[in-house]
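FW: tagging you since you asked about this chain on Friday. Here's the raw sequence from the shared folder, copied in full. Didn't touch anything.
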Amino acid sequence: MPEADRPSGGVRSAPPTPEPTGTPPPGDSAHPLHAADEAATPPPGDSAHPLHAADEAATPPPGDSARPPHAADAATPPPGDGPAVPGPAGKATTPAEKATYGSLFRVREFRAVFAAHVLSLLGTVVAGLALPVLIYQHTSSPLLTALTFALGFLPNAVGGVALAPVADRFAARRVLVACDLFSAAGVALMLLPHAHVALLLALRAAVAFVQPLFTGVRAASLGAILPGQDAFVLGRSLIRVVAQSAQIVGNAATGLLLVVVTPRTALVLTVAGFLGSALLLRTGTRLRPPLARAAARTTAGTRRLLADRKVRALLLLCWLPPTFAVVPEALAAPYADGLGAGPAGVGLLLAAGPVGSVVGELAVGTLLRPAARERLVLPLASVLLLPLLVFLLHPALPLALAALCLSGMGMGYTLGLDRWFFDAAPEELRGRALTVMTAGLMSAQGLGMAAGGALAEFLPAHLAIMLTGVVGTVCVAVNARNVRRLLRGFDRPVGSRRAEAAQSVVRSDRPC
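HL: got it, structure written out here
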């Protein structure tokens, strides 16, 4: 299911709004997180930026007009923690050039972010399986083992809300590096000899607590790193695809690893993954000033964000489909047992949804232009749970796998949704908005799994999955209707070219 870290997470070719260009206050360059906070010039507002601004009408950021469309990628290495440097680096995509997954890797900073993502995923996946195995070896308690898995999700809601203001208040690079170092330190403490189980569980919760902040800040930083909003959406999509792929193969690979090494030794790889990610982010990305203006650096920013009806509706559109789509994963074991499919059947059922999600995202991102992606957001979201209705027939394993894969392909709707959310969230609160989105997504999936398990206490697994499809489809359809009403531009279809050309549909500095 979608990255939160996962969850689960169209690319506009227009260049992004320029970053603020202030000089950091004296003596602040060595602060662990602050960079160019108070002296930075506030970023220009999106006062003329519509919800679906036309790609061709965008004006290049100052200083870009003299730069060749394909500037050399041999940019000067990022400086130390000195003055913040705005703007994307590396080879850019011109306004007339359609962004692709391949074109993202022309940008040097994105290559660093992508490699860091792979390393941090290595740490997350290995710890996600090695730590429960370690605790079970010490306690032989199924309850504590299950609690170890749960603590990878439960702290996300609290962490997302509590840490959301940090996302825009500090320089993104410093926040990301600090989160990686904190996670590495937390896992390193798990390696202490004779560490008590309570300490292991507390450290597991602490590492999960900062994950929504890390994921949200990384997502927001892509808007500054990548050349245009279309590239931002494809960058988010590629991050999600890698996370889904890790879900498919990561647990199996870690299981094989634990055959030859002890769980504590495997956790050393987790520490190395987080440290490698921190090093790549520190040396491979530029130090940019925080997004938030001084006036926005308060907890009231989150209330302002959630007071916006458009933002709330888009958050629900992000959260609702995955909440219901994870129920078949939660019930994979009892359903496979009912079929007599054994552990292999459980593994296939767990992999079917993520495989469909990867295929759907790659197909939508590769084959469709941005406007087409946006037109498909509401239709795909509204129907992606319908394949679950086939479980009314208690299908055999091949048909069940096909239904789950087809349902997962509907997650391609998230590319167009990312563009809408990028436009709807005020620029100075964008990191906070994406942190809230990530925390809500991870928490909603955890609740969906728990609700599906509770329902299966009273109904057979196949009927519980079918009922999930019915209820989920109704809920998503109601929210999709609300989204269409809120985002309709002068009675034009959402995502249409005419709607994209409409001006002043949404202002990022509007009152909420």
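FW: Residues 1-96, 490-512 have pLDDT under 50 and may be disordered.
HL: agreed, and The two ends are 32 Å apart (CA to CA).
FW: great, closing this out.
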